[in-house]
C-alpha cells in the first residue's frame, strides 16, 4: 500500500444533551445516498470544516444544540488521529493520537494538542498535520503572481481539488481554479505541484511589465521634478552672485581674514592688559584693606592713651584737695566710715603718677606720628587704585565698544562671503546633478522602451506530467463509457481556461450534468495520477452529487440507456479502485445492487422508522 495519504474513518457530532450522530467510512469507495434533506451535504461541510475550512457547516434545524465535531483519520502508514472542533470556539482545533472514542479520556490526561487554524511559525497548525500525512514536506513554496513571488503551501490550497461541493461540481470554471477569481496563479502552481511533485521554489522572481512601466514612469516624473527644482535653484544662486559684484569671494575672504587676525591680536593684547590691571587693582585693594584695619586699631589705641592721661590727671588733682583738709577726720558721705585725714598721699605715689604720665605722653606722640604716616600711605594707595581703575575701565571700554563690535562685524561679513562662496559651489554641484539626472533619464527611457508586454500566464506546466494526468482522466471516462477511447482529449493551459477539451469542445461548453461528470473525472483522475506516480496527495476525494444533474437532454447523450450505463459504470469502476485511495460520494442516486456489496454504502431513507432516516438521529419523543 502507498504509505502517504490517509482516509476518513469516522465523523461524529456530539453534545452532552443530544443523541450522538456519527457515520463510518472505509478505504476505497464510499457512497452516501438517499432522499434530499437528510444531511448528506451537511456531512461534507462538517468534514471540510474539520479539515481547516474557515466557514462552519451550514446551520440546519436538526443540528441545533450540537457543539462538538470529531473526525477520525487513519494514515496509510498506520497512525490514527482524531481532530475536534468546538463550534463555540471555531478558532481552535484539537488533535489526539487515537480514535474518536478515546478523545475525552485523552483530553482529561492532557494528551490533546491544540492546533492553530492558520499556519504559524510558533505553533503547529491543522495544515501542518494534514500536509505531513498527505506526503508533503511542509516546506513547499507555490507561485502566487506573475512576478513569481511565492508563499508557503497550505493544506487549504489542496482541499479545493479534493473536497467538491454541489455548486462547484457544476461550475463552468476550471476545477483548478474552482470559484476563485483572485488567486488563479497560486491555484495553477498547486496543480503543477500535484501532477509533477515540483513546487515553485526554483522560479526566479520577474518584474510584471505593467508594474515595471509604472515604476519607470514614476522615476521619470521624479527626475523631471527634481531637475526643475535644481534649475530654479541655479537661477536664484546666479542672480544673488551677480548682485554681489565681480570681486571673487575668495579674494574678499582672504582680505577679511587678515583683518580678523589683526583684530584678534588687538583683542588678545587688550584683554591681557586688562588682566594685569585687574591684578594690580586686587593687590592695591588688599593693601588698602590692611591699612584700614591698622588705622582703626591705632585710633582705638590713641583713645586708650588719652583715657589713661585723663585718669592720672584726676589722681593728681585729688591729692591737692586732700592736702587742704588740715588733717581732720570726717565721715564718708556714702558709707559712713571715718576718714582719717591725717593719712596723706606720699611723695612716692606722686612720683609714680608723674612717671606714668610722661611715658604715656611719649607713646602717644609716637602713635600720632605712625597714624599720620599710615593715613598718608592710604591716600597714596587710593590714588593709585583710582588710576588703575581708570585704566581698567579704559581697557574694558575699548574691548566692548570698539574691538569686539569690529570683530562681530567682520564675522558677519565673513559669514556672508562664505555663504556666497557656498552658493557658487552649490551652482557647480547642481549643474553636475542636472547632468546626472539627464543621463539617468536617458537610461530610464531606454529601459521603458525595452519593456515587453508579457502574455498573461498562470505558470509553466510540465508537459510530461500533464500528459500522464490527461491519460488518467481519459482512461477513467472510457471506463465510465462516456468515451469510446478514440476521442482526442487535450488540456489547455491558457489563462482563464486551464481545463480539458474533448474533440475540441471545452468542458464549460456542456450542460451542467456533463460538466459535473467531467469535473468528477478531473478530480478523481488527478488523485489516481498522484497515486500511480507516488506523488503527494491526501488520497481522499469527496464529491457531492456528481451524477444527479446528468439527466438533461444533451445531443450527444440523448440515449437514456447510455446515460444509465454511464451512471452504473461510474460506480462499478470506482468500486474496484485501490484501497489506498478513498472516494466518498454523496448522491441522491442509488448505486447498482451488485456494487453496494463492494463498497461502504449508507442509505438515508428520509423516513423515521425506515432504515436510517438521516445523518442526525431524530429527537426521541416520550410515549404518553
Notable traits:
single chain; 624 residues; alpha+beta; Rossmann fold; Helix Hairpins; 2 domains; 6-stranded antiparallel sheet; 5-stranded parallel sheet; 12 helices; 50% helix; elongated
Folded structure, characterized:
With 624 residues, the chain is an alpha+beta fold. The protein has two domains: 6-195 and 459-604, P-loop containing nucleotide triphosphate hydrolases (Rossmann fold); 249-450, Helix Hairpins (Orthogonal Bundle), CATH 1.10.287. Helices cover 50% and strands 14% of the residues. The protein contains twelve helices and 18 strands. The protein has helices at residues 40-50, 103-108, 126-133, 156-159, 184-196, 209-243, 249-322, 347-450, 463-479, 512-532, 560-575, 593-596, and strands spanning 6-14, 21-24, 28-34, 68-75, 80-86, 89-97, 113-116, 141-143, 150-152, 163-164, 329-331, 338-340, 489-492, 499-502, 505-506, 540-544, 582-587, 600-604. Strands 2-1-4-5-6-7 form a six-stranded antiparallel sheet. The protein has a five-stranded parallel sheet with strand order 10-16-17-3-18, with helices on both faces. Strand 4 (68-75) and strand 5 form a beta hairpin. The longest helix has 104 residues, at 347-450. The radius of gyration is 58 Å and the shape is elongated. It starts with 5 loop residues before the first strand and ends in a 20-residue tail after the last strand.
